[in-house]
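Collaborator request, handled under Task 6.
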Amino acid sequence: MFTGFVSFCLVSSALIQSAEAAHQIPLIKVEVGKNVTLQCPVTEKDGKFVHWFKQSPGYMIQTVATGSYTKQTLSEEFNNGRFSVSEGQTLYFLSMRNVQKEDEATYFCQYGSAYSQTFNTSVYLAVNGKLCDMFISFYLT
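C-alpha cells returned to the collaborator:
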C-alpha cells in the first residue's frame, strides 16, 4: 500500500514538473455594431493549410473558415456577409462587420501541412454593449 502511494507521488510529481505553463491569450474589446479584424501571421514554409475556429464560453469549438494559402472558405454558418477571410503576404485575416454579442468568443488560427497542424494565434474577443454595461453598472452601485 505504502509503495503504491510513493509511486503515485513520484509519477504525479514528474507530471507536474513536465507540464508546460498555460499561456494567457490576448483580449480584444469591441463595441456592438463595430468592425474588427483578427490577424494570423503565417509564412509559406509553415505549411499549406489555414483554419479559423471559434469557441464561445461553454460551447464546443466551431470551424469558421478553412482552406489553403491561396483560397479560404467560410463555413456555412459564418457565410452571412458579416464574416470574411483574406490573406496578405505573411498574414491571414478574419474580419467581422457589425459585431454582435454572440460573436464574443475565443478565436483560433491554425496552420500547417496535411500531416502537422499548429495553433498559431488565439485571441479572446470581448463584445461590449449597452445591455452588458447596464448589468455591470447595476452590480457596481
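The cover message to the collaborator said: "The longest helix spans residues 2-18. Residues 26-140 form a domain with the Immunoglobulin-like fold (CATH 2.60.40.10). Please let us know whether this matches your experimental observations."
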